[in-house]
Structure formats: C-alpha cells, structure tokens
Amino acid sequence: MTATPTAPxxxxxxxxxxxxxxxxxxxxxxAAPLSPEDQTVQSMPDVSPTKWHRAHVTWFFETFVxxxxxxxxxxxxxxxxxxxxxxxETLGARYSRADRGFITRPGAHDVGxxxxxxxxxxxxxxxxxxxxxxxxxxxxxATIELGFHHEQQHQxxxxxxxxxxxxxxxxxPVYAGTAxxxxxxxDLGWVEVEGGLVEVGHRGDGFSFDNELPRHRQWLEPYxxxxxxxxxxxxxxxxxxxxxxxxxxxxxxxxxxVNAEQWRAPFYWSEHDGVWLEHTLNGTAPVNPGLxxxxxxxxxxxAFATWAGKRLPSEAEWEHAVVSDGQGGAAGxxxxxxxxxxxxxxxxxxxxxxxxxxQSTPRLRQVYGDCWEWTSSAYHPYPGFHPPEGAIGEYNGKxxxxxxxxxxxxxxxxxxxxxATYRNFFPHASRWALSGVRLADGGAPRPSDSDLESP
Amino acid sequence: MTATPTAPxxxxxxxxxxxxxxxxxxxxxxAAPLSPEDQTVQSMPDVSPTKWHRAHVTWFFETFVxxxxxxxxxxxxxxxxxxxxxxxETLGARYSRADRGFITRPGAHDVGxxxxxxxxxxxxxxxxxxxxxxxxxxxxxATIELGFHHEQQHQxxxxxxxxxxxxxxxxxPVYAGTAxxxxxxxDLGWVEVEGGLVEVGHRGDGFSFDNELPRHRQWLEPYxxxxxxxxxxxxxxxxxxxxxxxxxxxxxxxxxxVNAEQWRAPFYWSEHDGVWLEHTLNGTAPVNPGLxxxxxxxxxxxAFATWAGKRLPSEAEWEHAVVSDGQGGAAGxxxxxxxxxxxxxxxxxxxxxxxxxxQSTPRLRQVYGDCWEWTSSAYHPYPGFHPPEGAIGEYNGKxxxxxxxxxxxxxxxxxxxxxATYRNFFPHASRWALSGVRLADGGAPRPSDSDLESP
Amino acid sequence: MTATPTAPxxxxxxxxxxxxxxxxxxxxxxAAPLSPEDQTVQSMPDVSPTKWHRAHVTWFFETFVxxxxxxxxxxxxxxxxxxxxxxxETLGARYSRADRGFITRPGAHDVGxxxxxxxxxxxxxxxxxxxxxxxxxxxxxATIELGFHHEQQHQxxxxxxxxxxxxxxxxxPVYAGTAxxxxxxxDLGWVEVEGGLVEVGHRGDGFSFDNELPRHRQWLEPYxxxxxxxxxxxxxxxxxxxxxxxxxxxxxxxxxxVNAEQWRAPFYWSEHDGVWLEHTLNGTAPVNPGLxxxxxxxxxxxAFATWAGKRLPSEAEWEHAVVSDGQGGAAGxxxxxxxxxxxxxxxxxxxxxxxxxxQSTPRLRQVYGDCWEWTSSAYHPYPGFHPPEGAIGEYNGKxxxxxxxxxxxxxxxxxxxxxATYRNFFPHASRWALSGVRLADGGAPRPSDSDLESP
Amino acid sequence: MTATPTAPxxxxxxxxxxxxxxxxxxxxxxAAPLSPEDQTVQSMPDVSPTKWHRAHVTWFFETFVxxxxxxxxxxxxxxxxxxxxxxxETLGARYSRADRGFITRPGAHDVGxxxxxxxxxxxxxxxxxxxxxxxxxxxxxATIELGFHHEQQHQxxxxxxxxxxxxxxxxxPVYAGTAxxxxxxxDLGWVEVEGGLVEVGHRGDGFSFDNELPRHRQWLEPYxxxxxxxxxxxxxxxxxxxxxxxxxxxxxxxxxxVNAEQWRAPFYWSEHDGVWLEHTLNGTAPVNPGLxxxxxxxxxxxAFATWAGKRLPSEAEWEHAVVSDGQGGAAGxxxxxxxxxxxxxxxxxxxxxxxxxxQSTPRLRQVYGDCWEWTSSAYHPYPGFHPPEGAIGEYNGKxxxxxxxxxxxxxxxxxxxxxATYRNFFPHASRWALSGVRLADGGAPRPSDSDLESP
Lengths: 455, 455, 455, 455
Description:
alpha+beta, four-stranded mixed beta sheet, globular
C-alpha cells in the first residue's frame, strides 16, 4: 500500500527495532498523565477511549505482522481481535464503534500488559529475521513502517479525543502544559503563486500513505495564499459582524447545522459573563486573540472566507504553494521553513502565534503544526489511484466520500508525521479535530482564456 | 415525608451513628470488587456508574443533613453539587443524566475521599447533637433514616447497573459468587384469598416511604395467587409455544416493542449453538430451568400470564395475600415466612429455586428477595397522598405516571430494606431491573353482584 | 364482545336498515364540507385522512359482516383490505399507519363509490335475512350494531383529525359554524358525593363496548367533584402564575414534555402581538375566557389540578357521581340532566359555556359533550375482563397500557354515542383530542380508618 | 446571474410572450393526468406535491418579475409568498419543506386560478414594456428567461416526485404511456479521448446557469468512456455476483447505507415470487434487461464501476468527451448526435434502449436524455465562481457541498433544457432522481510523468 516494489524502505533490523521502540514509547508517554478512568471514557461516537487507542495500535502489529509472520502464532487474547479492530470488514465482525466506552476490561493496566507482550514479540521477530532472512524482513518492514505511521495517527487522535473527554467535565481538568501569554494578531501577508501545469502527490521515495499517490499533473491559474492562519481575534470580528447569524455567508448545509446545533462560536469556546473562554489541554482560559482559531468546521471556515471576501485554497494550491516556497522538505523528512514548527513535541499541545515576518517578501508561516488547514477540495482519489488488495486496502480508499481534505498538521501531530503531500480528511461539520483556516485568493481564469470554442 | 409527627423514629445518637456506619460500609463493600474503570462506565441512560452511586448517596447526606444543620457548612467541592444531584429540580441545574459516564474525575479513589470526609462530619454532627440537643436530633434523625433507605435503594441499583455494564463486555467478567447447580421447577401451588374490604398501605409505625401512605380501604373479590415465582423452565415452554411471535398474547405497545427491539427471550439470555445462556453477576452459564425467570419486562410478564390463562396480581391483592399469609412482618422489620429469603446478604446475587413445600396447604414462597414481582397496578398515588414540601417532596410523587408497581424485593435488595407495603416501580418495557413474575387468578365479580341499579 | 347471549339487541330488519342508513349518512355529511385535497392529508401519525376514515368504517362492515355472511362474497377491491385495515393483526398485513396520507388513490370520489356499493349489499343482506332467517339476523345484528358504534367513534375522530389538518394551514380555513360570543366563567360549584361500596361498569342491558364490563364493586371514600369544566379564563390564570414554568406542579414525565416540546399553552393556542388566539373548526379567534379549556394533555390537566390545590377524579368517582346525580340515563340511551348537552348535533363543533345554575344545590353540568374529561385512572381492564375470541377481540383489550381514561364525551361526539359508563382513553401527552378538565377533591381515608392491623 | 452584460438575451416582447406561454402550458399538461389528491401528497421530504410545483414556479415570476416591475403591484394572496417560497432565505420566513404535503388549500383548482392570473399579468407587463421601454425589457428578459429554465427544472422534478408518490400506492397507478418491449443489452463500446489542457464550462453565448461559469482550463490525461449507459441486464449480473453483499466494492458511507436501508436492488425494483419488477410511470412490469439501469445512487454507481473494474468519469471528462464527439451542440440549443434523444417529449417517460452502433468507431450514445449520469466529481464552484447579489444568488452556490455532479439529462427532462455544460447535482445516497451510470477508464498519469522534483 505504501512503498512500491522499486522503492524498498531500506530498514535494517536494528534501526527498525529502535524506531519501533521510540514510536511505542511515545504513545505511552501521552497516556501517562491520564487516570484509568480518563482512559476508559468515550464522550461521543467520534471519540475513542485512550486505552482503546493504546490497544488498537497494538492489535495492528499483532494482526498484520505477528499473525502473518510469527511461527506458531497465537493471539494474546481471542476477544481482543474483536474488541480492537477499528473498521476492517475483511477481518470479520468487530465491536460497535459507538460502544467502545462501555468496555471496562481490559483496564488501562491490562492494556499495558498487552502492549509489552506484543512489543517483545515484535522485537524478537524483527531481530531474528534480521539475522536469518533479510529478504523477508525487507518485505515485512513496509508493513511495520505503516504501523509506525498508523500509531502516529492514533497518537494525534488520542490527544484530540481526550481533549473532548475532559471538556465534558465541569471540574475542567488540565491534561498538561500552560496557556500562552495573551498576544495580538500579527499582520497577514500574501504569497503570490504563478501556477500553471503543476505536479501534486507524493513522488514515491520514502514513506507515504496510498492516498498521496499517484503523483499527477494539474492546471492552476495564478493565485495567492495567506502567509499565516486566521486568528482568534479575526474570528471575533467575524462573530461580532453577525457571522453566525447571516445566512448569506453560509453553504445551505452549513446554515442548517448552525441552526440545528446552535453554533455561535468555535467548538471549545463558551461565554461566561460576557467573556469568551476556550477549553484547551492546558485548561480553560480567556480566548487569546493572537493565536490561530481552532476547532472550526469546514462550514465555518468557508463562511469566514466568504465574509472576508476570500476563499479556501484547493489542496493542489496548498501543496504547490508550500513546495514553491521551499518548504516541501525531503520526502519523508521533517519540513523546514522560516518559522517555528509547532507539532506535539512541545508541551503547549495548542496552536501558538505566528512568528513575525523576517523578510519583506512574505513566506509561508505555520505550514506544519498549529492547526490542520481546511481546503476547498473534496477527499477523492487521485487519478489512477488503486487501493492495495486485502484488509490493508481498507486503510484509506473507502473513506473517499463526504469528507474534505485538510493539509499541514497540527499542534497534536507527532514530529516526523507531517509532510507537504499528506492528506488528512474530516466530514464538513467536524469540529473536534484541531482544525483551522488559511485563506486564499485569485485563481480565476483570465477573461482572455475563454476565446476557445464553447460547447 | 416519612415518619409522622406522632411517630418519632426514636433514635439515640449512638445507634444512629452505628447504623450510619453499617449502611455506608455496605455500599463500599459492594464496590470493592470493581476496578476504577468498572466504576466509571454508563452503559445506557438508565444505568449510573458505580462511583456516581457512591458519590450521590453521599451528596444526599451532605445536602439534606450537613448543609442544613452543620455550623459553618461549606461543601466538599462546589461542582459536586452539580454533578451528583440526581433529579431534584428544586436544587437547581444538574449534570445531564445520560452523560454521567463522561465524567472521569473525580475518580473512584477521589469519591472514596469524599465519602470519608462526609462520614466523619456526619458522625461528628450526630454525636454532638446527641450530647447537646436531643430535640434537634429527633427532628434530624427522620432525614438521616431516609438517607439510610435512600442509600439502600442505590445499593440495589448499583448491582443492577454493574450487571448491565459487565454484560456489554465480550470478555464476560464475573462480579462475584458462583452459579446455582442445575435444578428443575418445583410444583406450583395456589393460595386462596378471601378478599372483601381490606386495608392496604403502611400503618405508620416504623419507617416507610411516602408513597406507601396513607393506609386506606379497598374492595377485593375472592382470588388466588401462586405460591412461587414463574421459572425459567416455564418460560422456555412459553418461548417454544411461540410466545414471542404470537401477537394475540401481547398488549399493543408490548407487541411494538417485541418487534422494534427484536425481543425473543429475557433480557440477559442469548442463544449460542442452540443453547440458551444467561448472563449473571456470577458469570455466563446455561439457563437453569428451576430458577425464577428474571429480567423480564411488564409486557413480557403480562403476555406470559395471558398465555398461561392467568393474570398478574394487583398490588393490593399482592399485599393483602402476603399479610393474610402471616408474612407481613413487623413494621420496618425483616420479613419472616416459610422459606429462605434470598436478599443481597447471600453471595449468589441471583434468584434461587423455591424451597419445597413444607405443608399440604400452600404458603407463599419467595415473597421477599429473588425477583421484584410485576403487578397489574399502575404506579399512582394512594387516595389522599400528598408529597412533603420542598426538595424532598420530589422523592416519589413526581414519578407517578407511566410506570407499573413491583412488589417484594430481589436478590440484590439489601437486608432490612424489604417490607409488605414497599412499592417499587419501573416503566412497562424495563428489563434491566431484576424483575420476575408471580401469577394470580380469580378476582372477577360474581354474576349475582350485578343485580343493582345500572347506569 | 358486546351483547351477552341473554341480552339480544332485539333489532328487526327494518329498524336495523334504518339505523344503518342514518349512521352511514351522518359520516358523509361530516365529510361534505371537505375538498378531495382536505380528505387526503395526514398531518401527523395520530391523524388519519378523512377518506381513510370513510373507507375504513366501510371495510369494517365488509370484513366482519359481508365476508362472513354474504353468499358468494367477493371483496370490492382486493387491495382495499390491505389499505383500510386499521390494526387487526389477526387479519394479516396492513398498510403502515403513519403512511396513510401517501395514498392518493382511491380518491375521495372512489371512496364514495365503495361506500355506496357496500351500503347496498348490507341492506340487501339484512333485508333478505329478515325475510328468511331471523335467527341468523339476531346473531348478526350484534356485529352490525358494533359497526354503528365503531363508525360513530370514527365520526368523532374524523372531526378531531381534520381540525389538526386545517390547523397546519396558514390560510386558516374554516370547517363550519361560527365562534361563540365572548363570555366570562360562571361560578364553579362542588357536588358532594358520599361514596362507600359502589358499583361501576355497564349493567349489560343495551349496547356497550367490552371495556365497560364486567360491572363490579369498588370502595370510595367521600369526595366532591366540580359541577362544571375548567375554563379558558382559569387556564389563563394558571399560565400567568407560571404554570408552564414551575416544575413542582408537574409529573416528571410531563415536565420533560413541557421542555422538549416547548409547551406554554393549550395545543391550539398561539400568541400574536400579545393576544392569545385559538384555532377551532369555526376558524381562528381570540381565546374566549368563559368556554371550557380544551386540547390539554393529561399532564397539563394534572398540573393544573395541583396548582389549584385539587386533583382529577378517578373514573369510578366520575361515574358514580354522574349516576348519583341522576344523569346515568337509560342504558344505551341519551343522557339527560339539568343543562344543555353539547354533542356534535349542534353546529358549533366546539365546547360552549356552562349553563347557569338553576338551583341552590349544585348539579353536575357539562357531563356529556363539550370536552372529554381526563381522570386519574390508568386504562386497565376491569376485574374479570376477557376480550372475545378472534379479530374482534383486538377492539379494546390490547390497548390497556400507557393510557389514561377520559369520561363524558365532547362537542365532536355523535349524539347517541355518550353514556355514563363509556371509557375513552388516550396517552398521557395527547393533545389533539378534544379533552378538558373537571376537578375533584376529598376522597382521602379518615384518620380513624387506620386502626386496623398494619403489615 | 446568467447572461453577462455583454451578452443580452436578445428577446423581443412577442417571442418572449410566446415562449412564456409555451413553457407554462407544458407544466399544466404534465399535471393534467393527476387528480387533486395526487397533486396534494408529499411522500417523503425530498418530494414536493404537484400543486406545490405548479404554484412555486408561478411564485417565482410573481416575486422576481411582477413584484419588481409591475406598477401598483399587489400579491395574489399574501400567504402564498410564505407557502410557495422554496428556499430563499433573503425573502424571509417560509413554510417548512417537509410539511408541504400538509397544505390542502389552495387546492389544485385554486392553484390553476393563481397561475392564470399571474400569466395574464406577465403577458401584459411584457407586451406593454415591448411597446414602451425596450431597454427595461432587455434587462427584465434575463430574469424571465431564468424563470423559463427554472420552470423546466420543476417540470422534471414534478415527474420524479409524482413517480415516487404513485410508487407508495399498492394499487400501482399508471401515470401515462406504456412500457417498452423486452430487449437485450447491446454491445458496449469505448470512445477514446486524448485529453490534455482542455476547457470546461459554458462559453457565455446563450443561456446557462451561473454554476456552469466561468469557463476554465483543466488538465486531463488520456482516458476512455463508454458509448452507452449501463443496462438493467448488467446490473442483474452485479446483483447475482453479490454486488450488494460484498463490502469491498463499496465506499464506507455507501456500505453503511446498504446495511441501514437494506438496499439490494435499484430504488424502484421489488422481487415477487423470484421475479424482479420495476415501478415506472407506465406502471409496474418485469425489469427489462436491455434498458439503462435507473434510480441508483452515487454509492451504487461507484460500487458497480468498482465491480466492473472501471470507474465513473469526472465531470470534465464527461463534458470534454461529449464536445470532442461533436455533440456539444450550439450553446443553448438542442443537442445533436448519432442516436435518438429520449427526453420528456416522448410518452415513455422512461429510459429506452441504446440505438445500435451505426459505424465501426464508437460514438457516444444516450448522451442527453434517458438517465442523468453520475460523475466522480463533487459539486463545487468552478475557479472564479461568484454568485450574483441578492435572493437570486441563492439559486445554486449555496448547495455546493455534500453533493455529486450528474451530467446529460433524462427521460423526464423537458426538451430544450439539456446541454453539454449543464451541471445537475444530488446527494450521494439519492435514488429517487432518474439517475444512471456511464463507465470510464484510463486517465491515470503515465509513469514517465513522475520524473519531476517531488516534495
């Protein structure tokens, strides 16, 4: 599903074991501040309990690696296969997603036991193969590497999910960290992009998910794109200008949501005595005007852009702008760029303000980290996309309807997990993900373009 | 609400403290086998988490005793008042019932801290008053005694609720105890009752809930009542005779439920490879034919009675039969009778088989304990019923619609909590309570009764 | 189900044909003011289209009389049996109740053709039997008489239903008649009733539904009952005193409805520019304070009574009071009494004000007609009730859960269809029926009653 | 919204009045076979009653033409503005869409009166302006022309909707016409298309909707497209191969629908005694294998394509293929092509079989008419799209989320209403529209394309 036969990951056993240990330990470190009770609860169907995440990523290695390759394989516990399958129809019946919060046992401690046993068996398998059968290890390492990225996706979800769980609690518990000092929005600049016949999608050297392939050509008219994310302060202006009350700013389905769910601010904002507060993983505090707005749906992002006289970028525009700006990065590597990258390796677990401009010509800021950025693109397959055979083929392709693409990464994304071609996706009305807004403009065909024969 | 002014409870401080300590300890002993995760989950809106029960009964003493009588009262934690109010509208906003399972903190351990602090303060208050102000203590002891019975109700609910929580788990955890040995149903006998102008309701000496009052007269035609509960074996016969497929046996609303929820057996039964299994607090085992059927709704009880050519007793018939049979007991005391009383002081936590007849004339068996028994009576106020003023007036009266009365007690009822006049109640379709069936017959007016003037 | 073997209806063929013609013509006269479109619509699941009522009552005669007794019977149209069966499970599959408004054909005209053909065949059958086989006619006439009363029930429902259909229309169409002149509430008096061991239920001479049987004894403590219905003016006082905002007045389920459905006035009231208007079959006009309040649910009736410091009568109290007041009437006959009886033979199709007192001792007013009166009694079987065998046994018995009894009749009840023992019933939250409130008081046991042995 | 200032429609008063008369008469001719009852019913929220369509298109002219331009304008009936506004938020409150079937008055006849009055006033206005103020008429004619196309859209919807209404009726009424004779599928051929940098969208000469603009460039890799629609016979093969039971063929959301709604065949198919029948406007008859499959959702179309090893075309591919094949037609004119065009000017009101190939190189058949063809394109704005100001701006833009584009036209589309650039759209799960499937293949980037620098 990921690396093509001509592009082997090139892992040796030792580096594979090291990376495995590193990824697995990061998950446990994220769960460490949470009590057994915290790890058990599912506060809405989209959310999964922390201990479910910890077990499910373990099940992935057990199912797709150990069960396929371990001699005399036996599952750790038969029922775990049923409990911790997320959505793989090919693998048979599974426990209802909406009911994950009803499972009290295995408890948080038992899940730790499960993890450690699978970890030991994984390390044994890889080490043994490294000594005896490098050919098999080469084939296997693609699946194990997918397991790393899979676990990283769940590391991000674990944080988004526990944020929601804690938000339901009137005691307002803190997960970690402290809130940024109050700051004001920095000037917004625009990056001009020429467009033309450009390429998008992953080139194939280094890891990518299947949905980033195949790399293909696309035509873009000249456009421009904001050099930073929309801020809370700008969002307040939208609200004060009747943003949530003016139907003409909204898509019809979005307007129905505004009314049905009484949206009047971003997801985690609440008004108390005239002050807008925001629930974060650092606790609840007054909304900070200089920080990027977060936890807004596609509908809200789109309405905001309409209000601002702008629009959202397409995913091709986003990707091409980032690459043109020199922030494409080495394939599979960490992005570089002008500013600070705010991923989940800091302890804020929350978007931070854009670093000031360093030169007169705007460069893109906040590209990776801070907030996933809504695009105007539906999540559809790239031309020529074909999912792989078998259960692993269910990883991405079957979700390609009714969702919109987000790009970049967020403050909950593990380091090493963001890249220019990465396609994240959520339904139009989703708000519990750490999503924000970058504006775009231009891109219309020039009048002279229409001189050709018309149908 | 409970004791009338002319019938003071007559508690001295020491016995009050002793009973308090005893009741409170019993709750903790019931929670002891449960992990923090077990204590957190709400598996459906009717169910409350174990730690919520432990906290709510504590809140009851804090709110109705300490807050009213303690000098310089301050709540243990402001938000606990919001979190652990069950349904008292008079006391202001409260946390949504269906969302009790979303609260991870306070955890099971924190609730223990809360309990111990309130316990200490309660004992201090009572001991001090006992030394200084017996008059105030006399008044207060009625509320404290209500708190005992309130906590006992939640002890029973805690067990019913955790039974449901554990039932959702494919790992089939055991709470405690072991299943009874397989046995066959014993012969069913009938107790004949004369009826006439009888009295029902509590006499007022000793504790009762307000819904057992006032004692009043009611006319009963001669009837008879089964000397034991309907068994699983008899229920199997009903099922095999198409009980769940024959519309003519069912009330219209019940038939709608059968079809909408696909009922085809009691709540905790499931069929695997042709064998019917039952989930219990002792684990999952084949259905035992000699045990009382349990976890059936009013609709099922009523349909079974129709199938059997019998009917359910009215609550007046039930109460009068029990008293006539000499099992009325001393007011507030423990019932006596021919057989074993299976309340929650055994370790089965499940109904047991009726003990064999000891004499030729049938006496009522399984009156208290085993299963709450559905009656044909809607849960309505007795003539002249008036709830007390204030928040405590919400205890019973406001629930007097859309529910049916159950009588007797069950294997999860704490000892000392059952009596002949006790009115339990659940909606017609409820199945998660430990409810069973006792049949009745007769009770129709004799033809010669109709000779009077007709409208 | 109706007449017992010892009480034959005693119809001869000619009088049976005459009554048949009369009942059938009345249905058509009620439908006459309605367009084909009016007759087609189902504005909510509880409501049936006019042409469905017209066809269903015809289907009743076709199914239970012609199909059973006509030589060489063939149905008018096969699919009509499927379309116009209301709820008889015994008779097989039927068209979904909630979808009755989706059936455009047969149209209103076609239903008329169906009615006329069945009418002709019914008259032929009865006339022929009258000449050839009086024995068979005697047996058949009980079913035909049931058909008369069945059609009368649907005449009442037809009017309740079309009232709801027209209420959905912003054009505010008028069905018929004109509104009463504004008037003020008359003084409310109380009728004292002794009680004791009384009889309730139908005596068996003349027609009754099976749910009025068997006549049986019941004990009543002394009570009193209001001599007229609660008025709109009194209801306004309840509203202005916070009636719909004070939880302590409501049953818990009722309070949930108030909040979920935003009840703040009776069903057909709406506020425009500070004036309360009421939708009626005579059009929409300001609420008339002297008229009985109508279209209130049981929950509202009960809350009003609590607010007034009174209660609702039980159905036994209601029936016994009416009989004691000399308004029981001859069995099956039309009631008599002091005041005007406002049934559907006037052209108001709406409750009217109580006629003034004529003597110093209050007599019951507005007993029959005006509004069906909620009682405090759940709709349960009388002791010894057994429904008849076969499809006709589904007429009443299976609905005996989750409903409350109403007594008396209303302004939409056909003349000849009301009697003292008649038991109407609706769910607690129903408001589209023409239901109102009569208060009661007393009925509590006297203190000295409790001297007997207590359980 | 439609014609640009530089491209006036060029209508004179007489031709405008003639076309107006023609369009309006066609609506009435479509309603003519329907009874008042047929015209009243709304069988599901997506469906509108026939008389609502007739009134709404009249309201459009009254609101956007008469109210704006008629001297001393007064509405025909105040409440009609409320009742017959479809979704224009700018114009204020409107009657709930899902409740359109509850409005019995105005009846079908009254709507005819409304139509005739507005028609007369429209003709007077246009004729007068033609004589006195050609400048104003030039401006007005763009709105009137939009009204023509708006009414044509509702002519199509009227037929789709009444098809659904009649389908709910067990009497299986026929709207018109007779079913095609049974035939077998014709060979399917493939049309090769070169692609490259192509233009899509309307050129701007002649009428188009705003969503067809602006015309813009897009890059297409070489692809091929089927020369006819998928047939019922081919769909049967899909069903028999487990099409509706194999999760791996489906998008995740589609698979959820299959299970939730128990899809196992196209919308109007039903199985009786092993024979598959299809409900059509011509009545119900066995499924004809040679006809195009119709009334399938996007999910089904996509699953079928996956099963066939093919895919759906994008909307750009569809449009470019049609233009390349010489079937683009003059802007605004009627399409031409090799085969018969089956629009709503025939009396089948149902798709017909593809006409046989006439030459060795496949040409596209069934391009316009028969079935709307699902594409793989989400319904999004074209680059540079801006809706016009005011209420008319709500026509298209606000619906651009959660829907997929369909192209071509169908057997219910009025003649003169189809063109190559026309973008129809429905939600992914919609099945009541007359939608079918055309397959595509190829379009993937060639390996050598990926030689460029990768991010």
